[in-house]
Write a structure and sequence with these properties.
With 269 residues, the chain is of the alpha/beta class. The chain contains nine helices and 13 strands. The strands form four sheets. Strands 7, 8, 9, 10, 11 and 12 form a six-stranded mixed β-sheet that branches. A three-stranded parallel β-sheet has the order 4-1-5. The protein has a two-stranded antiparallel sheet with strand order 2-3. β2 and β3 form a beta hairpin. The longest helix is centred in the N-terminal third of the chain and has 27 residues. It is elongated.
Length: 269
């Protein structure tokens, strides 16, 4: 009985071995292949965003150098809408357009005003914030209150900005100052008499007046309307469309309004 059982087990092992040998021979023949295994999906591409990160409360950096601000939080939400990880590239404002034109970055988020001149070389998203270009002036007798009061007087604006464009167009009789060679702050430039007016975006102008309302005020009439847009390279239609869809979604779900309120901003639209 024991011998028959042992013999039976040996026969089973021999048969199993022949079976695996046959299977191996079949799979080594031409045309035989292992079951297909799908490769893992590629990781989503980073969304590389350029900014000077020097215009709070829209965008700046904290004490540890991390981006912060209203537009920074908007881009975090927008990147999530696009399903892409976000990476910031910080660079001077006057280098931003070249960076997106050469595809060094995917887009610009830097409170860049939409203008016909810029639209000749890049594409803008739909506006994500609307404001006005204001002129901050000193309070007191004889100080400017209207556009005409600035004829022959010095009006400063950032070089290459929409504020410079507005000064040149609306105040042609003023003396435009587009370089801050002394590196003074806005308040010091005005109160020292270095300039008689300072053109800037509405949120920055209002913040400056809030801080120094006993000495500074705004001209009665803004110089121009201002609309900020995200910037992509010319011809990047798919990215531009995706960004616009994302902005629509963030408006509909209340994210945009909540960010404006959180950072103390009041758009004009």
């Amino acid at each position: 009985m024991f011998q028959r059982s042992a013999r039976h087990r040996r026969q089973q092992l021999i048969m199993n071995g022949r079976w695996w040998l046959l299977l191996a021979m079949v799979c080594l023949t031409p045309g035989c292949s292992a079951p297909a295994v799908s490769p893992p999906p590629p990781a989503p591409l980073e969304l590389v965003v350029a900014s000077d990160l020097d215009n709070m409360p829209f965008a700046g950096v904290d004490a540890a150098g991390r981006p912060q601000g209203r537009d920074v939080e908007m881009m975090v939400a927008l990147a999530a809408q696009l399903g892409r990880p976000l990476r910031w590239e910080r660079m001077p404002f006057d280098q931003l357009l070249a960076a997106v034109q050469t595809s060094t970055v995917d887009l610009i988020c830097a409170t860049m005003g939409i203008t016909s001149e810029r639209e000749e070389v890049v594409d803008f998203s739909d506006p994500y914030f609307s404001t006005a270009i204001e002129v901050v002036v000193r309070r007191g007798p004889g100080e400017p209150r209207r556009w005409a009061d600035l004829d022959g007087r010095k009006v400063a604006a950032g070089q290459g900005t929409t504020s410079e464009r507005a000064v040149r167009r609306v105040l042609p009789q003023a003396v435009g100052v587009y370089e801050n060679k002394s590196q003074q702050g806005a308040y010091e430039r005005l109160t020292s008499g270095a300039v008689d007016g300072l053109a800037m975006d509405g949120p920055n102008a209002l913040d400056l007046v809030r801080q120094h309302g006993d000495e500074l005020t705004l001209l009665l009439t803004p110089l121009a309307a201002e609309r900020y847009g995200l910037v992509v390279g010319s011809g990047q239609l798919a990215l531009r469309s995706a960004i616009n869809r994302g902005l629509v979604a963030l408006r509909r779900d209340g994210t945009i309004a909540a960010l404006d309120a959180r950072w103390g901003l009041q758009p004009t639209d």
